[in-house]
Model the fold of this input.
Amino acid sequence: MRHPDRPNEMPTFLDERTPGSATPRARRPLRQRTPLRVRPRDPKSPGPRRPFGSRLRSHIGYQVLVVLLVIAVPLVIVARLHDAPPPIRVLLNDKPVLVSTKTTFGALVRQRKLHATDGRLLDVQGKVLNPHADPGKITLNGDPAKRTLLLHPGDRIEVHDGKDKTEPTVTKRTMLPGRNPGNPQYTLETGKVQQITTEGKVSGEIVSTRYVTKGSSRTPPAVALTFDDGPWPGSTLRILSVLEKMHVKATFFVIGNLAARYPDMVRREEHAGMTIANHSWDHPNSPPFDTLPARRIDNEMSMTNEELRKLGVHPELFRPPGGSVDDNEVAIARQNGLRVVNWDVDPRDWAPDATPASITKAVLSGIRPGSIVDLHDGGGDQSATIKALPDIIRGIRKRGLQLVAL
Done:
């Protein structure tokens, strides 16, 4: 029990004495300790840093572990390779290839990304009829095999691509009704004509067409004047004026792009009763017209047909630039509704050294009943042809021959 008169201090211990003294020493009162305040830890603040020695030992331990792994992993791989059986050799397209003993036929195909291309069936124009006509194949020792088969030493794996093939052709012969000119036509002769067509057996696409005269032919007492390479400013209308004054019908083989440029001249020819025919779109003649790709030949004909139809003209005749023609060209012309017409008399009125006299002489010395004469109203200066034309017309008539259009 605390005495009310005693100060507020800790009790003393009587048994603690100062050495050499019989009086007990009073003990210092104990200091009261203030309780520690613990601050909450900030989650973003780093933890207490470990001593430098501890961190150094951890870093050295990590490096030692890495070195041990670098040494140990190759040793394990080498040991396993030493225990694995050696690879086997197979032939892939006649070239040696090493594979493991557990490799299957299918695994090799996948690993090497082997693929066999199918062969196609093409029509006579090169278009694809069947893309898988001749399937490609990958063989094992010369035969198809299951992909799960294990490969053995010396096995032969070969990739065989299919081959492209063009469809076979058939030849058809047809007698045309009545009497007809040839195709290509060189004269006015007519007769019994057999049409011989070669076409694709599957597609029916025409490869070539030719015409053969059977039996005797008939030749009219007439000559046809034809004019190429127009319409041409300064020439066409002057030639047309001569023909009209002398009551002559002729044939004009016009170039498509010129017809588009000078449509009024084409209308003038038609109004005068002349025959208007197709002479290609832009007159390509080098290389020769008949050696051009089939698509180009077809475009030359079809584009000119379309342009002339815009002017109310429906051409039925075609004259190839330079007169170059083959059976394929005849077939393309037929598909465009055209018959090929050339000539048997060429006075070369387009030549730079041509004169009215030389042109007239060449025509009159070359004609016979049924002749087709090739003259020009375009392509350059045709003043020599224009001057020669009246004498040519008179000379033909003096021989008792008529002048006709095709």
